[in-house]
Amino acid sequence: MESFYDAINDELMLRQHKKDVFSKITIILRAIRFVIKYVTNTTLMHPFAPQKKSKTWKSFTRSPLFDIGQFLLLLVLMVFFLNRSVQDMGYHWQWYQIPRYLYVWDDSGFVAGPLLYGLGVTLKISAISLGFAFAIGLLTALLRLSSSVPGKVVARLYLEISRNTPLLIQLFFLYFVMGPILGLDRFWAAVLALSLFEGAYASEILRSGIMSVEKGQWEASHSLGLSYNHAYRFIVLPQAVRRVLPPLANQAISLIKDSALVSTIAVYDLTMEAQALISETFLTFELWFTVALMYLIITVFLSILVSYLEKQMSSPYRSDLSF
Questions:
Q1: 217: which residues sit within 8 A by CB, 6+ positions away?
Q2: Nearest residue to 262 (alpha-carbon basis) of 129, 158, 159
Q3: 40: Cα separation from own chain's centroid
Q4: What's the pLDDT at 69?
């Protein structure tokens, strides 16, 4: 009997042991399945799956405050590194002397300083050159699109020469070689050089804008009885200019910055005035930083003006005419 009871006890203990082992295995399997399910929902099983971010963080990164914070952080880093470099260099800043080179108040009132006078010359050269560059670019674009073979050859030759030679060399050639022949002083030689150089790039921009106008626009203008010139004037060019306004604005900004090269032929623009003041006062960094800030203000203002013109000129009926 005892052996019988011992056998039953052993059998019960074996079953209990198997039951415990099975329970442990079940728990382990459930844990493994939970881990796999968790990892699958993240990026371990799918490393290239997009991360799910909270809506709060996503909205914050898209807010203007995040951009302002990044800009302020960049300014802090720039000031920090500039301060470190100045300390290592041992340079003594004299910003208090800069205002008198911008303007002076005397008994007669407001008097522009050398920097503002040079800025006026820069704006004058840039404005005249921009008008001439647009006219030259439009004429060159029309010649390239015309059926005249001599016109195409002349336009292509002008483009290749202007775009593939440095502006400084063109400036020297027009002032020292063509200036005495044509009777050009340094101011108009600078205007002509900038106009020809920027006009080559403006012509390609305008030509691409004209070619982007749909063929149906030409057909509609001819069906209305418009002549070739009137179709260009009233139908094609308004749409082309609207489409190429951003690259033309970039070209205008490039012209303003390129106008600094006219100082090489002794035109007293903003850059030349700064060079003359530096040779007298040795305020190298203060004056160059001031000049850079003045150029930056002009170009930013021009960019804002062009953005406003884009919104005003965008068509409310055709989405492809909007930028």
A1: 235, 236, 239
A2: 129
A3: 42
A4: 78
Give the whole-angstrom CA distance, residue 205 versus residue 211.
Answer: 10
- List of E strands, the chain: 103-106, 109-112
Count of helix runs (H) and strand runs (E) in the chain: 15, 2
Contact 213, 231 (CB under 8 A): no
CA distances from 85 to 97, 283, 284, 286 (A): 22, 17, 15, 15
The residues, any chain, with a CB within 8 Å of residue 239's CB and separated by 6 or more, are: 209, 213, 217, 321
Which band of pLDDT confidence, cut at 50, 70 and 90, is reported for residue 46? Answer: very low
CB atoms within 10 A of CB 202: 26
The one-letter code for the residue type at 9 is: N
Residue that has been written with the tokens 């009132």 in this structure: 109
The structure tokens listed for 307 are 């953005």
Residues 75-115 have pLDDT tens digits of 888 888 877 776 777 778 888 899 999 988 877 788 889 99
pLDDT for res 6: 54
Q: 118 near 272, Cβ under 8 Å?
A: yes
Collapsing DSSP to helix, strand or coil, 52 comes out as: coil
Query: With 50 as the cut, is the pLDDT of residue 48 above it?
Result: no
- Three-state SS at 148: coil
Identity of the amino acid at 237: L
CB atoms within 10 A of CB 274: 24
**238 close to 315: Cβ distance less than 8 angstroms:** no
Q: What is the pLDDT of residues 175-191, one digit of tens each?
A: 999 999 999 999 999 99
